[in-house]
């Protein structure tokens, strides 16, 4: 997408949509970070509180679900899917 | 007598023979060798009869005959046509243009002179 | 709790599933049946009996590790924009029927590749099906142990067999009712959605009962958890990461997941709901796993099977109804997995293994004729039976529950081998067939060697010694410590080696091999699928589809014919209007009708463009191109034929013209000869009669007339000579004798002897006079004399001059004759070489007009030519001849 060719101020909708797509793309990496990194940090150790660890993962999980739901809905609402790669 | 005959013929030897024959019988004779200017020659000479060859340079005898018949002045002018080709269709063509007589070369001297006399006597 | 009641409830539940599936099939394309919720629920086939029962067991044994099985898929769905979106779009655009089909079509429709993936899927899935059969039989057993009388379940194998048969029956009934072009099964999907709700509610119900019925709420659970034996376990980071990766891979690569996620997907936009709703479903499914495990461990007697805590906890608490509900949940998990997996596998087995064999045997063409249709349905049914038979056989063989417990993850690792070929295929255009084959086979071999075969236990398929010391005592080939890497968890060990070798082989072979054109096209289509396809429109009502189809059909086969086809179909469907529902049968018929006009591939492409919204695949395009080429060739042939006819007609016309011309020419020739002969004869006759009949004629006149007669006689003789000459020349009867002479000598001789008349002067340019030619000197002289004579006769300049120029042009010798007269007018230049073509305005006596015709004949006999040379001021003729005269033909 050649951004120079486009008027900057009239494109705020398209711009916003592309940033939402960026966020959607970023989401799994956020998830991987918060799921995998603690797993590695905890490796070999006995967790001090199993329930605490459990609650952490469930919390991360529900946050990811909520973020996905919100972003996807906003994305779907913002007009048709733009097919930028 | 004093009938005036115009010979339209491009072969000089034939012209000479005819001139001799007609002069001998008391005709005055004029000759013309070119098809294209034949009509003017006829106008000029005002002949009593024309002997017309078919194969003429620039304009053939049929065309001259047709033009003659189209003019009121020359509509009735007696025309004797001579041809060396001797084809039947030529005779038919000449007759369609109201030729008075159509003869094939070579001709008998006696025959051609008497034919000319007959045509002028009509 | 009566076991009979259990059986009765099971049957009732199965009957309900039948009813739901049947109703869904009948309802067809109703909007709500294709809702994103149904799609999301159908994805729950991921949660099998192994997760329903086994997750609790897993949690009881290994703590939180079970979460990875759900977190992996969650990450994939959260990142749906990367992979799933693309997979679903490709699936729709390419009409993909299975994961094997996707891999094969990505790599240039390679059936060998499809067979490899199919085999791997069968090997990876069979143990999993066995696992489902086991869990259902175990749950029956759990009930029977606590049941109050009735008959007891001694014969587990028998139970498993009956379950397998029942599932096969259900799957065949709803999985192969008809052949949908898109391999979608609304009925099955609906039944599975229902089962998804049942298993979720069942697990939630058990969980809520356990937390608030048995334990004292969440705080109590947390306390018990931290106090339990699980809490003292070390956290295994390697397994945590490995399993998360494995589960993420499985959600993409498992044949049954691919089936519900890609193949059964009716609208791409459903993915946007599933992206968060499916993780939410998984979240709910795992929410109470840990509490149930903890409570089972702390309240149930030592040695109870933790895999059955979901059932045994309510049973122990005397909650028969809840236990029954939980049983139905487990039953749903098992059956939905088995049904979808066997549909997916049977599609692959039938499409990629059985049908190619059948078609090879029958040698029939692969059109969707009735026979082939029946054959496909039959192979599907046989495949379903075979897949379930295999599962049952594996269940019987493995027997022990221990081997089965680990099999879930082992299966995952097996199907994960497809991942590099799949992801590489849709993101990397450079991926090739050989890369895919090498990666798949390499990865699968390592998986089998390091994980699958050892999973049968020491002394199972591999001996104790083999496992401990490696094959033939080669230490670094030990299945559980490949290349000497020791101390890893077996699963992580196998995963690392198989995936890395797989990826390595895939990459290297792709880099060094060269894809065929089909592969490259397909690669481009899939990798850039979003550039090659349009975003899906809204759901198209069937009426609009039928109308679009009618409009298209009218264009192809004509309005009345199209209407007739549509009306007949509508009547058969029992509809009053002219528009039938676009059922598979109708679309099939329409395609057949259209293919009569435009070819099968074109018809298919056109129809599916309207019905499926699918883009035309490369293969479609190629087939269309083939058909077009055939038609083009046919029309080319026709065109060639008509051209041939035109040519023949023209040749006939020309021949006719020639004949007519010849006849005209003959007439003209005869009349010309007549004229040429009669003219001198007229003079001769006339003058001889004059001489004979005229008396007293003068002496001079006698002499004159006699000489005229003499000249004309000479003329006659000359004409007769010329006529004879040209007839001899034309008939090729002339004999020419070559002799060597210089050009100059010929010209000298002629100009010395020819009668130039009084005025004509000849000038010579002697450039080529020295050229020695080999020619018939007499004939050449005749030509030259003719030309000089012509100049003498016709050149009417005051001081007539003739310039003769000799020279050479290439191989040919040329002599030009140029006079200073007025030349020959352009219109006459063509006819001067014809016989009797004397130009009348310059008629000279004594010429029959045969001279130039004779010259032409002579020159052509000698292999040369005579031509009029324009632009020289006067009349100019050029003689061209070879230095050596052409051999005379007789």
Question: What does this molecule look like?
Answer:
The complex is a heterotrimer of chains A (85), B (122) and C (890). By secondary structure, chain A is mainly alpha-helical. Chain A has two helices and no strands. Chain A has one domain. Helix content of chain A is 69%, strand content 0%. The C terminus of chain A is likely disordered. The mean pLDDT of chain B is 87. Chain B is globular, with a radius of gyration of 13 Å. Chain B has 122 residues and is an alpha/beta fold. In chain B, helix 1 links the parallel strand 1 and strand 2. With 890 residues, chain C is mainly alpha-helical. In chain C, the strands form two sheets. In chain C, strands 2-4-5-7-6 form a five-stranded mixed beta sheet, covered by helices on one side. In chain C, strands 1-3 form a two-stranded antiparallel ribbon. The longest helix of chain C has 76 residues. Chain C has 35 helices and seven strands. The chains are: A mainly alpha (85), B alpha/beta (122), C mainly alpha (890). The interface between A and C is large, with 43 and 46 residues.
Nearest-integer average pLDDT of chain A: 77
> Element order, helices and strands of chain A?
HH
Total count of strands of chain B: 5
What is Rg of chain A? Answer: 18 Å
Shape verdict of chain A:
elongated
CATH-defined topology of chain B: Rossmann fold
Helix content of chain B: 40-55%
* Continuous helix count of chain B: 5
Q: State the domain count of chain A.
A: 1
Query: Would you identify the regions of chain A where 5 or more consecutive residues have pLDDT less than 50?
Result: 81-85
Helix/strand/pairing category of chain A: mainly alpha
Could you tell me the strand content of chain A as a percent range? under 5%
Number of helices of chain A: 2
Largest interface: A-C, 43 and 46 residues
């Amino acid at each position: 997408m050649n951004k120079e060719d486009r008027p900057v101020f009239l494109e705020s909708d398209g711009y916003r949509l592309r940033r939402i797509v960026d966020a959607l793309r970023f989401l799994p990496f956020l998830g991987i970070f918060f799921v995998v990194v603690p797993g590695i940090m905890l490796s070999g150790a006995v967790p001090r509180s199993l329930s605490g660890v459990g609650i952490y993962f469930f919390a991360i999980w529900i946050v990811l679900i909520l973020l996905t739901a919100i972003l996807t809905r906003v994305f779907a609402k913002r007009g048709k899917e733009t097919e930028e790669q | 007598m004093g009938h005036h005959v115009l010979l339209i013929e491009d072969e000089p030897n034939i012209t000479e023979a005819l001139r001799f024959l007609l002069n001998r019988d008391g005709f005055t004779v004029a000759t013309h060798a070119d098809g294209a200017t034949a009509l003017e020659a006829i106008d000029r000479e005002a002949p009593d009869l024309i002997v017309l060859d078919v194969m003429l340079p620039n304009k053939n005898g049929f065309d001259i005959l047709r033009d003659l018949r189209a003019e009121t002045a020359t509509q009735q002018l007696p025309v004797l046509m001579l041809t060396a080709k001797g084809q039947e269709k030529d005779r038919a063509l000449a007759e369609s243009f109201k030729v008075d007589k159509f003869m094939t070369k070579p001709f008998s001297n006696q025959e051609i002179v008497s034919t000319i006399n007959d045509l002028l006597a009509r | 709790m009566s076991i009979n009641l259990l059986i009765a409830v099971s049957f009732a539940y199965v009957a309900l599933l039948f009813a739901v599936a049947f109703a869904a099939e009948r309802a067809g394309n109703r909007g709500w049946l294709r809702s994103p919720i149904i799609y999301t629920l159908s994805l729950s086939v991921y949660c099998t009996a192994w997760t329903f029962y086994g997750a609790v067991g897993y949690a009881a044994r290994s703590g939180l590790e079970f979460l990875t099985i759900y977190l992996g898929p969650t990450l994939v769905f959260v990142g749906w924009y990367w992979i799933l979106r693309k997979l679903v779009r490709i699936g729709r655009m390419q009409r993909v029927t299975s994961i094997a089909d996707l891999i094969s079509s990505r790599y240039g429709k390679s059936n060998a590749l499809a067979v490899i993936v199919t085999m791997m899927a069968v090997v990876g899935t069979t143990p999993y099906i066995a696992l489902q059969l086991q869990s259902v039989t175990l749950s029956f057993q759990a009930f029977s142990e606590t049941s109050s009388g009735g008959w007891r379940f001694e014969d587990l194998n028998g139970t498993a067999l009956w379950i397998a048969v029942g599932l096969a029956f259900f799957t065949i009934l709803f999985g192969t009712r008809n052949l949908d072009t898109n391999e979608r099964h609304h009925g099955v999907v609906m039944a599975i959605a229902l089962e998804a709700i049942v298993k979720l509610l069942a697990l939630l119900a058990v969980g809520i009962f356990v937390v608030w019925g048995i334990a004292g709420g969440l705080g109590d659970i947390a306390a018990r958890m931290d106090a339990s034996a699980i809490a003292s376990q070390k956290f295994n980071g390697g397994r945590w990461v490995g399993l998360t990766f494995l589960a993420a891979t499985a959600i993409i690569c498992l044949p049954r997941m691919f089936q519900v996620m890609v193949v059964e997907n009716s609208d791409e936009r459903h993915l946007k709901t599933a992206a968060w709703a499916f993780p939410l479903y998984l979240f709910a499914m795992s929410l109470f796993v840990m509490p149930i495990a903890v409570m089972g461990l702390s309240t149930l007697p030592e040695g109870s099977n933790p895999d059955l805590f979901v059932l045994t906890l309510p049973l122990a608490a005397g909650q028969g109804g809840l236990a029954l509900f939980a049983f139905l949940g487990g039953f749903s998990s098992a059956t939905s997995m088995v049904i979808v997996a066997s549909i997916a596998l049977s599609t692959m087995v039938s499409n990629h293994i059985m049908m190619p064999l059948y078609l090879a045997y029958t040698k029939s063409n692969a059109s969707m004729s009735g026979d082939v249709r029946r054959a496909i349905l039959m192979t599907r049914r046989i495949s379903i039976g075979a897949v379930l038979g295999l599962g049952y056989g594996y269940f019987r063989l493995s027997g022990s529950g221990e081997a089965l417990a680990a099999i879930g993850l082992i299966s995952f690792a097996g199907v994960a081998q497809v991942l590099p070929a799949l992801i590489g295929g849709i993101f990397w255009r450079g991926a090739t067939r050989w890369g895919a084959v090498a990666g798949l086979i390499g990865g699968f071999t390592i998986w089998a060697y390091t994980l699958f075969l050892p999973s049968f236990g020491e002394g199972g398929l591999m001996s104790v010694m083999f496992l401990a010391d490696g094959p033939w005592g080669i230490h670094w080939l030990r299945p559980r410590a490949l290349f000497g890497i020791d101390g890893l968890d077996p699963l992580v060990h196998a995963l690392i080696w198989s995936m890395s070798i797989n990826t390595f082989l895939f990459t290297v072979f792709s880099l060094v091999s060269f894809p065929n054109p089909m592969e490259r096209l397909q690669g481009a289509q899939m990798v850039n699928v979003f550039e090659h396809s349009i975003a899906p429109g809204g759901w198209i009502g069937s009426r609009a589809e039928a109308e679009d189809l009618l409009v298209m059909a009218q264009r192809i086969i004509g309005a009345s014919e199209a209407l007739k086809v549509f009306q007949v179909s509508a009547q058969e469907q029992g509809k009053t209007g002219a528009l039938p529902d676009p059922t598979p049968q109708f679309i099939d018929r329409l395609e057949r009708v259209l293919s009569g006009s435009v070819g099968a591939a074109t018809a298919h492409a056109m129809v599916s463009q309207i019905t499926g919204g699918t883009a035309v695949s490369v293969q479609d395009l190629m087939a269309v191109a083939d058909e077009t080429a055939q038609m083009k060739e046919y029309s080319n042939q026709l065109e060639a034929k008509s051209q041939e006819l035109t040519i023949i007609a023209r040749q006939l016309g020309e021949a006719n013209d020639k004949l007519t011309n010849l006849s005209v020419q003959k007439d003209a020739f005869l009349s010309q000869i007549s004229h040429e002969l009669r003219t001198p004869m007229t003079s001769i006759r006339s003058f001889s009669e004059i001489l004979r009949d005229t008396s007293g004629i003068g002496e001079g006149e006698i002499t004159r007339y006699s000489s005229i007669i003499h000249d004309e006689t000479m003329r006659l003789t000359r004409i007769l000579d010329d006529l004879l000459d040209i007839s001899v020349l034309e008939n090729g009867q002339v004999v020419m004798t070559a002799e060597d002479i210089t050009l100059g000598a010929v010209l000298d001789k002629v100009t010395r002897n020819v009668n130039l008349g009084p005025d004509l002067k000849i000038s010579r340019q002697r450039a080529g006079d020295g050229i020695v030619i080999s020619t018939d000197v007499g004939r050449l002289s005749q030509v030259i004399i003719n030309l000089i004579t012509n100049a003498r006769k016709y050149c009417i300049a005051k001081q007539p001059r003739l310039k003769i120029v000799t020279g050479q042009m290439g191989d040919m010798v040329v002599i030009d004759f140029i006079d200073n007269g007025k030349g020959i007018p352009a219109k006459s230049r063509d006819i001067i070489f014809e016989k009797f073509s004397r130009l009348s305005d310059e008629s000279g006596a004594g010429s029959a007009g045969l001279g130039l015709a004779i010259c032409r004949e002579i020159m052509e006999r000698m292999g040369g030519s005579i031509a009029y040379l324009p632009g020289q001021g006067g009349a100019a003729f050029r003689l061209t001849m070879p230095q050596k005269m052409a051999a005379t033909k007789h």
